[in-house]
Every structure is written in structure tokens, then in C-alpha cells.
Task: structure prediction
Amino acid sequence: MLTDSRQVFPLFEPAADFHDVKDPCPVFNGKEWHLFGSGGSTVTESWLIYHATAPALEGPWTEQSAINLGLSGSGVAAPGVLFSDGLFRMFIQTEFMNEGGTVEYLTSKDGFVWEHVGAALHSIPGTSEHGIYDPHPAVVGGTCYIVYSGMPAGWPPKPDIYLAKSVTGTWEGPWLRLGRILDHQAIAGHHNQHDAEDYEWGIEGAQLVELPDGRVLLNATSFLPIGARGSRQRVFFALAEDVAGPYRTCGPVLEPSCVGENGHSTALLDGNDLILCFQTRLESTERRWRYGLASVSTDRITLPVDARSQEECPAR
Result:
């Protein structure tokens, strides 16, 4: 659990035509903040690319028109975005609950108008990456990576976390798949397992952050083994000495302030502080997903006592 964290929730109230806002990804271009995400409804599972801007991460946020990327697919949502070399760079899924799909790569000079560059990754039918979604770009050790969820065929989806590396050192790729870097068993203490009678969902919403001390933080979402459905999602952290792992979980890091759950988030470094922009739905929001902020010193991100003896990922 994050200790001494500072939280703001809800960050703002979106326009009335958005029942839910999910998958927040705030990006600073040197002048202002842009917040990208998924805006729509969990009732109909219909989504648009949400966009808002602000002079500071805390706001005030100005909602912009939804972004039309011109991509085909039933699940075009959950953009993972960063800003580098004068461009916003977006990686986005085309499917979510369905098999198949691709991870598409787009760029923008201003965050409003986007140019499609091409597909970064394709699903691989009949494998553990029969479906792929929730991509997020990261720079670790000066190298470009995409971390994402991959799932085999079947229902319900049981995705694990996968990693791909640019073989050219640029965001244009091509991308070399490095395989699975985190599975269900590695986080069994706070995630439902494949054979669970009331299995709900797999691991998703992954992101990688290189910490100031050189450790690699994996920020993702798990589903608790017990509890009522609709209350189990939790943001969790895991740590590794190498980007490909092995990762050792720190466990869930945010608890809802009342009945509810939290999930898909983006972590940002601000000096020695880690700022987390996350999604939460609570009784106080009528179970609608809204965005929140939490911040904590990276010095306080440690492995639990029972994991410190594992030589693969020593805690400080």
C-alpha cells in the first residue's frame, strides 16, 4: 500500500454525454497537459477517444472534442501516449474483448490531429497472444518498448502481460516480441487464478517506468481473488532489476475510500515523486468511472517483507 500518499478524487466531472471515463494517460508537451483516455459507457461498451487539456496536472481541465483516429475495430480505446522529439506518439488497441486486433501507431504535432503511421503489432491466432490490447509505450535504459496484454482464445479473457522492443531504437519499429513478463501465478496473492470458480478477468492496463535508482516499475491492474464482482479491480505495482523481469509484486497500492474499485492508471515521475493518474468507480460516483490523482515518494515503493529474500529482485 502507498503510505503517506496524497490523493485527489474526482479530478473533474466529464460532460454529461460520457457515462464513464477510463484508461487515463496524461502527457505534458512542455507547454500544457493533455489527458487522453476512453470516454463512453461500460453499459454499452461503446467508446470514443477522450481528450482534455489543462495548464497543470491538477487542472482546471478543459474538455476537448473526442478524437477521431479513423481506425476500424470494435474496441478502439485505451490510448497509451508519450511526447518525444516534438511529437505526441500514441499506441492504441483496435479490439478488447474480442480475438484478433492490432496495436496501431499514430503521431500528432498538437494532440488534436493525428496521423496514422501503421500497425506496430498484430495478434497471433491460436497462441497466448490470440488477442492483444492495452498497449503503453515506455523508454527504459534509452530503449523503446511497448508493454501490453495478450490473451489466448476462450471466455472469459485471461490475459497476461507481454513486452515488445523496437529493433531500430525508434518508435517506428519494427517490434521484436520478448514474450510474457508477468503471469497470473506471479501475483497469486492479489489476483484470481485460472481455475477459480468465479474467475473475473486477467491482468491489464500495464505500464513500465524506470525509477531514479534504476529499478523498473510495472504499474498494472489485477482482480482480487475474492469479493463481489464489480469490486475487485486494483492498481498494483511490481518491481524488477531488468525490464524483462522477473517482477516481484508490491501488491495493490490504492484502496477505494468507500465501496468501489480502481484500475487502469498511468504513473509519472516528478523528481523523486511518483504521480499516479487512475480510474475509480465508487458509490459516491453512482458506480461511474472517474479519474483521480495520487502521489508518493519513490523511496516508499518497496517489496513486502516476505518478498525481500528473493534474490531476483532485492528491495532497498
